[in-house]
Amino acid sequence: MIAIDGPAASGKSAVGVAVAGRLGFRFFDTGAMYRAVTWLALRRNVDVHDEAAVAALVEAATITVRETDPGSAEATAVLVDGDDATPHLRDPEVEANVSLVSRVPGVRRALVLIQRALAAEGGVVMAGRDIGTVVLPDADCKIYLDASREVRAERRRRQIVDAGGEADYNSLLADLERRDGIDSSRKTSPLTAAPGAVIINTDSLNIDEVVERIVELAT
Ligand code: DC
Predict the structure, then answer these.
(1) What's the total number of domains in the chain?
(2) Nearest CA, atom 4, ligand 1
(3) What residue's CA is closest to ligand 1, atom 2?
(4) What is the pTM of this model?
């Protein structure tokens, strides 16, 4: 089991997919699950500030996770009560609300159970914020990917532009700052490097170099 944690836009998914490919492992992006729950809450008109209502929504929902085909925009597909949330995971409203939904303890409890079940057979790379600390504390290899906020904002801008979209560097930077703040300061499972995690700063490394480093550490 390989746990990869780190802040938004630190490259966890791109790196995780490639590491899993190299090792013949499965890859799961747990951020997709928090995004799918956020999509569900917005769709059902549940107030994302109402923690009890959001937790009740998750407890009543059937959440199914699977890998997508190689090269898909999302590495992890999430179905909620049979509806495919995957095309909506990057919607602006989901983006704006996911940090609020993911700080609700009841949401985390439910999703952590599903994540542990996915990893139970082993042969898995899992990316998120609390994989090494909470979900898989016994993971064989724990990585904390970091990069400066400026580098992450620029990478995200390039990703959007390369996909044919329009992006403003300063608003991406401000959004990362806001999300980093919520993810790192929440009471339940805040973003932090797990004890024993290898911290890799990717400011001056490309994806292949990071992948190589992790494969070396894991084998
Ligand atoms: O990695 P991402 O940007 O898709 O994550 C979306 C949000 O989900 C992010 O604001 C933090 C939250 N998250 C979390 O709290 N725990 C995880 N294991 C994964 C994501």
Answers:
(1) 1
(2) 31
(3) 31
(4) 0.94
